[in-house]
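Sat 14:20. Reprocessing the chain from the morning session after the first attempt stalled halfway. Input below, unchanged.
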Amino acid sequence: MTPAGLTSDGQIFPAPEPGLWENEVDPLLDLDLPVSVRFGKVRMPLSQALELGDGSIVELDSRVDDPVEVLVHGKVVALGQLVVVDGYYGVEVTSLAVNGTARVSLDAVLSANPAVAEVGQEEEMVQE
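Finished this time. Tokens:
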């Protein structure tokens, strides 16, 4: 088996055998999940929140070039950078999260699992 990433305590965890869970996982691949991007937070008293209205500005705890968090079902799954594509905001994923906390760079995952890297390259070629 080849390593696929790191656990939260820094241990390498193996990639599953090819096809091991294929039949069991296939039906789940079509599920729609809520995905959101968090680029800052702030805590404020309820009284201040009730005063918010059109034109109000809420100052967040992050800068424009800070990494943003990609959440699926409220759990952090990746970090990335905000980008603008054809006038729409997007996120360029720069690292994956393990157990919602530890970060694993995409380069480390791809180099540890050549099969994943090959799939990504094939997708890039199709899009070009």
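The chain has four helices and seven strands.
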